[in-house]
Design goal:
RmlC_Cupin_sf; 8-stranded antiparallel β-sheet; Jelly Rolls; RmlC-like_jellyroll; single chain; 8 strands; mainly beta; 1 helix; EutQ
Length: 120
């Protein structure tokens, strides 16, 4: 574990996150090397639809673009400044007709290791 840090946008490296229904780009800024509890980063979707079930608690803060999130039979059109709460077990669909970027924070940081899977 390390102390407080600043993550500058100019230093950010987005890497592909491949799922069964599409690919996004993600920068996992806060992970197990830094925290035993929380994960956080930036994810970018561009002209993609992703079906996903969160197996952790997650909060999204829409930073830029427009993102549609479908869950519980309802479409939620999100714009910059909107916040989305996704409790563990939520099945949803992310729809980005253009480029959308959001900050995410999740708990627990080691959700994939706990389930014996690899993060996309």
């Amino acid at each position: 574990m390390t102390g407080a840090q600043v993550f500058h946008a100019a230093d950010r490296h987005l890497k592909p996150a491949v799922t069964e229904t599409g690919t996004t780009m993600i920068a996992r800024e806060i992970g197990t090397p830094l925290s035993r509890h929380m994960g956080a980063g930036i994810e970018v979707l561009d002209g993609v639809t992703i079906d996903w079930t969160v197996t952790y608690d997650e909060v999204l803060f829409i930073h830029s673009g427009r993102l549609t999130v479908e869950f519980d039979g309802t479409r939620h059109d999100c714009a910059p400044g909107d916040i989305v709460w996704l409790p563990k077990g939520t099945s949803l669909r992310y729809i980005a007709e253009g480029r959308a970027e959001y900050f995410y924070a999740l708990y627990p940081v080691d959700w994939a290791a706990r389930q014996g899977v690899e993060e996309p």
